[in-house]
Amino acid sequence: MSSDRKTWSVKASRTANQATNPIRAIVDKLKLNPNATKPLISLSIGDPTIFGNFNVDPSINDAVVKQLNSFKSNGYPPADGTLAARTAVAQANNHSAAPLTAHDVILANGCSGALEMCINVLCNEGQNILLPRPGFSLYASVAATRFVESRYYDLVPENNWEADLVHMESLIDEKTSAILVNNPSNPCGSVYSRQHLEAILAVAEKYHVPIIADEIYCDLVFKGNEFFPMATLTTTVPILSVGGLAKKWLVPGWRVGWILIHDRNNIFAEINVGLHQLAQIILGPNSLIQAAIPDIFEKTPESFFQDTIKQLEKNVELSMREVSKIDGMVPVNPQGAMYMMVRIEVDKFKDIESDVDFSAKLLDEENVVCLPGECFKYPNFVRFVITPTYDRLEEAYKRIDEFCARHRK
Ligand SMILES: Cc1ncc(COP(=O)(O)O)c(C=O)c1O
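Above are the sequence and the pyridoxal-5'-phosphate SMILES. Below is the predicted complex in C-alpha cell form.
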C-alpha cells in the first residue's frame, strides 16, 4: 500500500482539467447591468426556440406523442440507434453520388455527440486536427480533452468566408488526423459553392487527410445559394458527415444527432468498426425520439422548412439594411444558418478597444448581448444571432446605432 494514501486527496483527471469552454471565460467579462432600464435583448444564443417565433411543426410533436402512447418505445435502443431510425436517416441523406445504407449511420447525442465520436475515432493524443477560424468552439474543446492539437485555418471574410487553402495546406503534416469543414457555418452564415468545396477536397486528397463535415445547418440556405453535401462531391476522399434534428427541425433540446460514414473505397474500414465500438459506451438519443424519426422525416411538410427560411431571410434583410447604415460596423452578408458576423472598425471609436470591449459596453449601456469574435478565435468582429423576432431585432439595431453614435470619434 502506497504511503500517500493516508489522507484524502481526490484530484480531477487530466481530461477534466482540459475540458474548458473557451466562450465561458470571454462571456464572463460581459456583466449584466443590474440598473438597466431597457429590457434585455439577446443576440447571443444560438437556440432558435427561445424567442417564440420558431416553433416545431405540429406533425413533429404528433410523431413523438404517437410513440409515447404506443408503450413500445421505452426500452434501450441498440447502441448505434434503432434500425428503423438509421434506415430513415440513411434514406433522407441518400444521394446517387453518395449512397448510404443504415449500416453507414450512427445516431448520437446531438450533433455535439456525433462530433465528439468523430474526433475520438480519428484522432490520437499528440496528433492535430485542422479547424476553421472563425469557428464553432466545441471542436477545439473536444480535441483538447483528447490531447489533440487544434490548428486553425483562416476563413477570409472578403471572400465569402472561404478557407484560405494555401494556409490550410501549410498546416498539414504527418500528424494531421482530419480537416473539419463547417458548411453552412456558425458563426459566419456562409454557404460554400461547389467549386470551393471541391477545392478543399483536392487538398484532402493530395495529403490523404479525411474530412469531418459538420453539416448541422444543411438546407438552411437563403435565396440564390445552394447547399452541397460535401460527400456528394468526391468519390475518393473519405468523409464523416455530421448532422441532426437541432436546427432544421428546430428541436435542439431533443439531442438527436448522427454520423454518416461516407467511404466508397474501404478506407474507413477501421473507422467504421471504431465508431460502432465507441457507440457502445453511451447510448445515443432517447428511445422515444429515435422511434419518431421515420414519421418526422416523412410527415414534416415542406412548408415548415420554407417558413423557417422565409423568416430568416426577412431577418437577414433587416439586419443587413440596418447594420450597414451604422458607421463603424461592417456586416458580412449571411447566405445561410442563423448568424451574421459584423466587423467592428475599432479605430472609428474613441473608447472601444476591441470586440470584447464593444460587447461588454453594449451590454452595460444598452442591455443588448452579442458574442465577441474572440469566442470564435476571430477578434474585431461580433456575431449576431438572427433568430429573434423582427421587432426585437429592429429595437436591438436601433440601440446599437445609438450606442455607436455615442462612442464614435
Ligand atoms: C456548427 C455547429 N455544429 C454543431 C452544433 C451542435 O449541435 P447539437 O445541438 O445537435 O449538439 C452546433 C450548435 O449550435 C453548431 O452551431
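The chain has two domains: 15-55+303-407, 59-299.
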